[in-house]
Amino acid sequence: MKRQESIISTETAMQAPTNTKTFADLGVPAPLVRALTAQGIAAPFPIQEATLPDSLSGRDVLGRGKTGSGKTLAFSLPLVATLSGGRRQASRPTGLVLAPTRELATQITATLEPLAAAAGLRVTTIYGGVSQGRQVSALRAGVDIVVACPGRLEDLMQQKVISLDNVTVTVLDEADHMADLGFLPGVTRILAATPNGGQRLLFSATLDNGVDKLVRRFLNNPVLHSVNEAAEAPAQMTHHVFHVGGVQEKKDLVHRLASGTGRRILFMRTKHQARKLAKQLTEAGVPSVDLHGNLSQPARERNLAAFSSGEARVLVATDIAARGVHVDNVELVVHVDPPMEHKAYLHRSGRTARAGSDGDVVTVVLPEQRRDTQALLRKAGISVRPRDVRSDSPEVVALVGEIAPLRAPAPTVAPAAKPAAKRPDHHRAPRGGHQDRTSRGPRRRRPRQGAQAQRGASTGG
């Protein structure tokens, strides 16, 4: 059934927390305010201040804000507040959050869990690439909120492992990225399986590529809150375009850019190149990890944890990380390989200058890439004068800042040689100096005779 299409719109300027209102002022319940305070979160960001009064009152909300604007908390708080005090049932959650990638789903869960615990709610995460056994067990044990990627969720729905007929609040995060990945048909089927009267909260940087159809069909008289224009780069982000003379100059520059003390994300076009660069940097004394589609889920989580904890200062990634990785205090993003389209440039660059902090973005450009990169930046709305540089140019040295001490890579431990298998006694050569049979080659087998041979033939040997 088609929902009403009218949208009430408000625009909110992107900025750091204004401190004019507290979470309590916005209607957030006291247990959740205490949970936020325990995490050191005291003041709401603009998108939270704008959306919370409407979402907490039960209105459908359409939020337009990029990663780093604080939107995860903007939908987590009303989700938990609305569901608290409900009755938990096996395989029938009352809250659903859809996310395009495993990384984003995992990080949404990390934001939700402390809030859910304060309200006595249980959260689980569902995504592909891993065995579904634990996910099925968690659902059957009873959960209140499911954070899911569309593919695995549909699989479990078809297996009758989960039912969405009790869902009262549905959140769709990064809907535009789901559209880019071709997930909208599945998302449409999932939303259609939730009750018509439920609350829907949809967050997206843009409303193109089919997202507007989702809004018209599934959101009822939504309030639109926009933080920044959808295609605008954050004001705290400083962009640099560095022209290099050739491949070796590019390699030297990238190694220099990676050598600073803060967190850096380096973007490559292919999985092979991302893996290769992470290995080269680590061997050169710059601890680095890679992130791309060929990694298993445990390896992805292990590498992200190493980057988040500071064990690795550099993350070398393909575009898979442009949307799904949310790590604060990334001070530098480097487009080692310029992206193919301007939207990818903005999504990659959005890993820095998050939530009011500053950040720098560098695009490294070979001579043959100059014309295409100039066109890409123009579409992205980025105006910056390119500079011809080398790894020791003053602007590069100033940007990198303090060089971190080199760290020797962990030694590779060769697997221990397996001890020779001990022969059973009946294979030992008889006493009397007979030659070991292995030195004479295998012993010929005698042909079987009689009933024994027939039995062997009748059973296939």
UniProtKB/TrEMBL annotation:
PROSITE patterns: HELICASE_ATP_BIND_1, HELICASE_CTER, Q_MOTIF
Keyword Nucleotide-binding: yes
SMART domains (alphabetical): DEXDc, HELICc
Basic residues: bias regions: 420-431
DEAD-box RNA helicase Q domain ranges (all copies): 21-49
InterPro entries: DEAD/DEAH_box_helicase_dom (IPR011545), DEAD/DEAH_RhlB (IPR044742), DEAD_box_RNA_helicase (IPR050079), Helicase_ATP-bd (IPR014001), Helicase_C-like (IPR001650), P-loop_NTPase (IPR027417), RNA_helicase_DEAD_Q_motif (IPR014014)
Domain Helicase C-terminal: 249-404
Domain Helicase ATP-binding stretches: 52-225
Similarity comment: family membership: Belongs to the DEAD box helicase family.
Protein name as it appears in the record: ATP-dependent RNA helicase [Rhodococcus jostii RHA1]
